[in-house]
What we know:
One of its GO terms (biological process) is deadenylation-dependent decapping of nuclear-transcribed mRNA. The protein is α/β, with parallel strands linked by helices.
Amino acid sequence: MSEQNWKQTLNLPAKDTRPQTDDVLNTKGKTFEDFNLKRELLMGIFEAGFEKPSPIQEESIPMALAGRDILARAKNGTGKTASFVIPCLQQIKPKLNKIQALILVPTRELALQTSQVVRTLGKHLGVNCMVTTGGTSLKDDILRFHDPIHVLVSTPGRVLDLASRNVADFSECPLFVMDEADKMLSREFKRIIEQILAFFPPNRQSLLFSATFPLAVKSFMDQHLTKPYEINLMDELTLRGISQFYAFVEEKQKLHCLNTLFSKLQINQSIIFCNSTNRVELLAKKITELGYSCYYSHAKMPQQARNKVFHEFRQGKVRNLVCSDLLTRGIDIQAVNVVINFDFPKTAETYLHRIGRSGRFGHLGLAINLMSWNDRYNLYKIEQELGTEIKPIPGNIDRSLYVNENEETVPKPFKIDQLPKGNETVHKRSGYEYKGQPEEQTTAPQPQQPQQPPQFQQAPQPGQPPIPQAPQQFAYPPYQAPPQFNGYPPQYGYPQQPPQSYQ
């Protein structure tokens, strides 16, 4: 392959012609070739559809290749994953049979996605990438370590388990990467992260990336990083391509409002967020009953089911996904152009990550918030903290704000060829039982005929037939308690039946 024509031999995807915002276009004009990357790595980058570096990639890749520790902050959907994957792949020696980079992420879905980015960008390098997460077979993972592994993508708990058993050896691993670093250094994970670092050499290189950096990151940086190079591209917090609206609706009107949105908006794919697991499943069932294709995903589901939902939604087999905050972090599905907060989030951080699922990589998207009267204080607080304006929803939303007229230009997602197998024997978690995704009804339900209550007669006279018995489905209407006894859930100890004096 000559120096001049190697680009002509590449299998390039169709060019993405969608308009983009300055979030990713405001660069210094560098190209990937300016970073002196390996030819095989450049081939993988261009064949993945990457044309030129985004601002965060321009800033971080040269410093990471120079060996500096990095603390980088950039908006959701501006190319942070490639900002650490490319330096990792450039520095890995494929002939050395050791783990040379550990990439830690907070969720299992993000681990799947990140590992696929590593495989796609490094497909010409001969680099082996393994993804391992909780909820999958530990025995299978241990067997996979008999093969050469250069990059390990994982969630923290599983890495600590493997390192503690001396299965994963990080004693000579030069690269330690944390995506969504603010989440990784929260109270939930911080102690595990520090235990993992004890297995690394002291002269490792650490790369930390996130959209938000609380004080926990500062204390970790002072303790574990060596003269880190700090990058902050957050001149504003929200993506410019996302139009944000709110609608005040009562709780009982939310489903009707959602049905109206589905009928009026041109949705390519949408993610709908709820604040609790129970509401996720119930809403997905209701949306399916309205006649729209819909899946749901939350943390209590078996891992195998979560993988299947994530895979099929990415491939476009279902249009709508209802989920908890499980999928707020890092999940990159280019076809999602609408995010709906069915339940309004309580913190600015959660809001920022939720709406960042649309408008990926500078493209246009829509965020709609269904709010009750009690959410108005959170709305004001989030607007103040993020320095953004969430407008009242108009009667007609301009299609140019979120619709791509040519859907063929939307990049197809990376195919997940190897999904980790879940532990099929585990179906319950904290009393939860997974009953599968809601299925669309192929035939319209027949209206039920009202049941006629049986006619009771007086006691039968001698020689007459017996009195007919009430059928099984017949039941007397439930007793209506006085208003002061309505609406109290049983766990609060209020009487479910009124006292005798009320009867």
